[in-house]
Predict the structure.
Amino acid sequence: MGNITGKVWGDTSVLIQNSNVELHKINVKAGFRCSEHKHEHKWNGFYVISGLLEIHVRKNDYDLIDVTTLRAGNFTAVRPGEFHWFQCIEDCVALELYYPEALSEDIVRRSVGGKTPVVITTPKPPQSPCIHVCQLDESGEKCVGCGRTLGEIAQAGQKVFLGDVPYEGYDK
């Protein structure tokens, strides 16, 4: 392992460094962040081993700062030319990877994402078996078709039958 370099946010040590890749182990203290910066020609990747780390990216092609929260086992990368910084939520150990721009850009955006509006749908009430002619149950209290009480039936102005005989024992 290379020399450990102290930073205001914690420390970093070089694990691998050659012309194609750099790999650093970083220890970041909770409540601290690195400077906002960009890499002109290198991708900057982050893999969290333990803790909780946020990666903030100021997108160049639209007015937005993306925030990606990484937990143990999560990875994300920032493309070259984008200003970014990391911010530590819980003490964190991570691997920081730098590699050259060798990947081609294949994404074309037509819009900017954001908060998805919440659409609340209420289920449609079940279709009533009501045929607008009520027939009371044996107790004489409820319609056997729609289940409404005599008072509810009266408010609706429906005809009520007790068996096959019209029932007039309620006030409309």
Notes: The mean pLDDT is 80.
